[in-house]
């Protein structure tokens, strides 16, 4: 590869062995990098073609069988950050090639939405088209009934093993529902409809109800306080690459109404944003802080729309643009463009974060 790079660059008229101290101009450096990358890409394509041919001809040879190759845990620290997104982009391209060329093989990457968005943003090139990737997506969602059944199975296995042969359900363990309050709905409302949230909340309920057959209302509330703070911490960890100060941004909504129109609290949000950014050290990897620095330099202090946009994308709040429309949530795959956020936009804080935000 080294020889190929030298040949490609030398062919463009550059002398890489300059010994008189003469330096390349910025334009020359950019051209060298471009030509070098072309060689690297061509070598990678050749090697990938060889790997695909190996899979097709020597390993996965029975075309009557469907083979599934799954790759998970790509959000963990398996590679340094500066290479992570280039590798993920390469994974996506490779998966698309294999799935197109070997019909009886399906490679499946398990990726969070935020990681996919970040990968495309960090590796985007002039020819990027998001539509050609969206056809590859299969969003995994859980219904309320599925989450309840999943917890019923966990409860049944746990209770059978420890106390009795008769299975119990989530509804039988939570406080008894009334005509005004269904505690199963209350419980599931405080998840982002993901198994990990439901399990995290339920485990805290069990800790607070140790030795009792049923979870009391008091134990449920105590568990919710812990769960809500842990859920906000976990969300902050998920988005740390884009918004290292996400918890601080969420806390700007502390003790505000659970739902509101932006114009009702816009001034208060702008004031709190100024206070947060004044005490936080600016780091270039925080997208919202970068925007704030640019706006403040231009004597602009209206960050309410930008803050709400970030909190919507990360799942802290849901939005609707006009009355009669249902509230949209990003964790359900729903989108609202930044340009559609206005003074009249209705904001609803997700119940999972009520206790963490003092609501």
Brief digest:
The protein is built from 14 helices and five strands.
For the largest sheet, list the strands in their spatial order: 3-5-4
- How many E strands? 5
Strand content: 5-15%
Morphology: flat
Rg (C-alpha, Å): 26 Å
- Estimate the mean pLDDT confidence: 82
Number of domain units: 3
Order of helices and strands: HHEHEHHHHHHHHEHHHEE
Descriptive labels:
mainly alpha; single chain; two-stranded parallel ribbon; 5 strands; 359 residues
What can you tell me about this protein's structure?
- The chain has a three-stranded antiparallel beta sheet with strand order 3-5-4.
- With 359 residues, the chain is mainly α.
- The mean pLDDT is 82.
- It has 14 helices and five strands.
- The chain starts with a helix and ends in a 10-residue tail after the last strand.
- The protein has three domains: 133 residues, no CATH class; 92 residues, no CATH class; 108 residues, no CATH class.
- InterPro entries: Sll1717-like (IPR059206).
